[in-house]
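Hi P.,

Sorry for the delay on this. The queue was packed all week, but I finally got your sequence through. Input first:
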Amino acid sequence: MTGREPEPIRRILLALDAVAHSPRLLETASRLAARLDAELHALFVEDANLLRLAGLPFAREVRLTSATTRRLQNPEMERALRAQATRAQQALAVAAGHMNVRWSFQVTRGEVAAEVAGESLQTDLVAFNLGVGRQARLTRLSATVETLVSDVSCPALMLLQDASLQPPFVTFYDGTPPSRRALALTARLARTDSREVIVLIAASDEQAREQLRDEAVSRLTQEGSVPRPLLLSTIEPVSLSRAVHAARAGTLILPLGGAVLGVETVRRLLEQVECATLLVR
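Then the structure:
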């Protein structure tokens, strides 16, 4: 392959906070680290915004079981965050231990996006959790894509609360360097499964689509994958979403910021899919 290829993924950063962690997420991250023979480093961020909110005199906690409210207290919020971090660390120890993965756990305090961006300078892949509930997912998705575009240059994996990394592996190819890197990374992820890679190809005319199809098939075959190209006549988000659903994607790997698949198109597509998604720059 030509051009800058994906760097070896030796260290995976798992971004956690009070909202975004679950045993399933930790298991998925551990499986990914085992698949890539990488170290897993979890960063639990005590959100400074939450702590500031708890310190405000009008902040209230609503108890769902009794429908009563009480004033939030900053010391109580700090204890709650520490308890959540402890539970997350214990769960990670179990999940990583089952997969025989090297792991570490760090607790920090600050703005979540800034802390993750800073730590990403020392890592090869960042994994984010988008949480549960459509509105919460859309809010976190928008913030995550913004952070990725502005501050994080390595690949980023975005997971729903209960999503996992599984076949079929679906990627997109438009001939740009990000799409070539996405192809190579998809092939690496598919090696321990069926090796089949579904590649979506879109271009302005039939001749260009055929050329891109031949390139993608050649590159994936060299990587030891079994390519299954699907030619698309348009790259509108709705059409892409339909193609992803038709392929029954278990994991979606997308080039971000290419000439064809721009940031806004990717964001709108991700609002429609329900599978684990890996963005490659």
